[in-house]
Fold this protein.
Amino acid sequence: MLKFFSKTSIMVLACMLASNLWAQENPDKPKRPQIAYPIFLDTEDNPAWAAYKVKVVPSMFLVDRQAQIVKQWIGEANWTEVESAVKELLAKS
């Protein structure tokens, strides 16, 4: 899927809601997994979960150039559906 996004004008970003989650779940593995896109750490004073009304993790959003959420997935995403939604959004722009 990341290969598909790399051929478009889509930017993939992630926001980690709990900055120490990896360390909590993997105390014997201090290194974080290698991920090919930026991951932002959530802030305590203006948390992303509150701003985007995230009630389930993982949650994923498709955001257009005007910073409007055009599609949201809760839980594990169906990547065929994600790819279709991205193609549809790209066709509109």
About this structure: The first helix runs from residue 2 to 6. The beta strands are 14-16, 39-41, 59-63, 69-74.
